[in-house]
From TrEMBL:
The lineage of its organism: Bacteria, Pseudomonadati, Pseudomonadota, Gammaproteobacteria, Pseudomonadales. This is META domain-containing protein. Residues 27-126 form the DUF306 domain. It comes from Pseudomonas mangrovi. It comes from the Bacteria. Residues 1-18 form the signal peptide.
Length: 134
C-alpha cells in the first residue's frame, strides 16, 4: 500500500522540484556559448534577452542587436534582427553575422540535460546559451 501511495506522489514531488530553467525566462540575460557547430571566438561576449513585451535584444559581440519574437510553447520565432553599425575586427564581424542569421532561422527551443538553453534553427545545430546566473 505504501509503495502505491509513494508512486502516486512521485509526479507531484518531481513537479515541485522542477528547475526554473525549464522555461525561457523573460527580462533575463542568456550568454551565447556556441553558434551551430562552432564555439565563440575567445573573449567575445554575445547575449540574448527576451523582454516581456515581445522584444529580444543583446550584444552580438561587436554591435547591439534587437528583434521581435513570438513564443508559444516550444515554438519560438525571431524576426530578422537589426543592429547598430559599429565596425570591429573582421572575425568578430563574421561571427556576429552568423549569429544574427542563425537567430532569424530559429523555430523552436528547449533545454539540454544540463539546463543549457538551445535555440533550434530550421536545419543544423542549435545556438547554445547559458544563464548569466551560472
Amino acid at each position: 500500500m505504501r509503495a502505491i501511495a509513494a508512486a502516486a506522489l512521485l509526479p507531484v514531488f518531481l513537479a515541485g522540484c522542477a528547475s526554473e530553467t525549464s522555461v525561457i525566462r523573460q527580462e533575463h540575460t542568456y550568454v551565447v556559448e556556441w553558434i551551430g557547430e562552432r564555439p565563440l571566438i575567445d573573449r567575445s561576449h554575445l547575449t540574448v534577452t527576451f523582454s516581456a513585451d515581445g522584444r529580444a535584444y543583446g550584444s552580438g559581440g561587436c554591435n547591439h542587436w534587437f528583434a521581435g519574437y513570438q513564443l508559444k510553447g516550444s515554438t519560438l520565432s525571431i524576426s530578422q534582427p537589426g543592429s547598430t553599425r559599429k565596425a570591429c575586427a573582421p572575425a568578430l564581424m563574421e561571427q556576429e553575422q552568423r549569429f544574427l542569421q542563425a537567430l532569424s532561422e530559429v523555430q523552436r527551443w528547449d533545454f539540454s540535460e544540463i539546463d543549457q538553453l538551445r535555440l533550434w534553427p530550421r536545419e543544423g545545430a542549435p545556438i547554445r546559451l547559458w544563464s548569466e546566473e551560472y
